[in-house]
What we know:
By secondary structure, this protein is α+β, with helices and mostly antiparallel strands.
Amino acid sequence: MKAKQRASYFGWSELLLALLATVLVIMLSNRYLSTVRLDTTENKIYTVSPGTKRILSDLSQPLNLKFFYSKTLATQLPGIGVYSERVADMLREYQRLAGDKIKVEQIDPEPFSEQEDNAVANGLNGVPIDQSGNRFYFGLVGTNSVDGREVIGFFSPEREQQLEYDLSQLIYRLNAAQQTRVGILTTLPVQGDPQAAVFGMPSQPWFSLQQLSELHEVEYLDAELDTLEQDFSVVLIIHPSSLSKQTLFAIDQYALSGGKLIMFVDPYAESSQVPDQLNSQRGGLSGDESYVETLLTNWGVMIDAGNVVADLDNSLRVQSAASGRPEVVDYPIWFMLNQGNMNADDPAFQQLGEIVMASAGELQKPENAATELTPLLTTADNASLINTQSLRFQTDPKEILKQYQPGQSSKIVAARVAGKVKTAFPDYQPEPVVDENSDDPLPQNSQAPTIEQVNEGTINAVVIADTDLLRDQFWVQVQNFLGSTIAIPSAGNGKLLANLVDQMSGSPDLISVRNRGSNNRPFTLVEEIRQAADQNFLQKEQELIAELEETESKLLQLEQAKDTSNSAILSADQQQEVDSFTNKKLTIRKQLRQVRHSLQKDIQRLESMVKVVNLALMPLLITLFGLVLLFLKSRRTN
């Protein structure tokens, strides 16, 4: 009996010691290991990026960060507490990395307090949470030593993946001595088109270009310019449609003189496919396209102006109403490229996420080109081309899908061009400028601009065969929240543009901060099976539709024969033939419904199988592993 009591005593003692040890470990961890993190996510989205570390290490002045967080009111907002802890942890990490260069102060602006007045005065947006006038504050105010101020009005949970970028961008702007100059020359309504509202089209400015003004001094250039200033860090040329030879010569001279260019050319700019009342000049590479092609070819890159790229493997799924009822089909001229389609050696594309492109063109290197063409974005290996004319006359996605025929190679849709070239316009002479103050129209009162022509130089440009990837529709949802603009991206298009501008303007630190990757991990095998099923369905559907049309045509012929004979009554043979074709028509329609239903059932069955494998297989393997260990342990004991 005493032995049993002794064993029981030792058992309880061991349990108590284990409990005390656990409490001690937790206390020590909270005290000494509170800043230790283990990031097991694939893209390390909870780890501070190298770009942020460089920004913090290069701070030239002390910064003050005031984190306004209504902690007493947060209990009324489910889920916000967890996100607020992540924001606070990130700020503490920034302070640790920056040392004495950053001071972080957390403030709880209680309702109707002096701290709340301070939050409002600094431009923070309070969210009303009850009828008594209480407002919830969750934002950041940063100041530098020269009265510069930057504000994050509200930490929206929808932008959690962009948290590090938002914080690093705020610090970068506070520390920057001066902004770099970025020029934008375009023939598209990127700043908004008031006339578009008349036709029910979006008219707001493109956010991809708006966001550049947060880090750079952006200047929109006249499409009929004579010269292009060299003090621009980089110039964006977006859809050079109908640019004059004079303007293209200015671009040529800027590039040969060492200027950096990012050029967006498009055989079918969807943003320009608007009624002619808006702008008859919009479209593909129209107007003076021979000059544009001369310029690009001279640089060592050609674009196929008559075709757009179709990539079924990476295509987006859109709605179609070709059969009279809404369907979701693959639209091969709209496609999403992932990391496997990007140049992994280029910092602007590393861990970028996905890029959505719409009716993009194909870039090729001309024979005997002296420059080096480096692909940046390429399609799947079986991409093909679709003529732009078919897009103008056929707008239904299902009809475009029927035209798709797999190709034999991948297509280049974005590339970097570098190397020494000669001017594309060696014989160009600037047009004389007439003195408007003179009444004498004779040529002697006209003079040619004195331009020192550059005949040879080194080109450094990025050419992207799409303009629509810059439009909000394809990559971001822009919302107005309490007077502030909140952007919720679904793809990395905006990141790509900002990365390229930073890279070419010599300020690359923010690139690795933006490129935090997304958590989108599609089931590629499921997509391949679904696409194959869709293709089989389309083929079978076309066969049945053709047979149905033939049957209906024969029925119509029988009806017309009856009218011709002026006989109200069909003969027995005619009636039997009509009944036969009617039954055949009903049978075909039934088969058509069965094909569509079978496709949907196959996809649902495939999804269910994937869910079972992902949810049940791993626990089952762990259970089996535990049973095997238990069995082996029992054998050793015996």
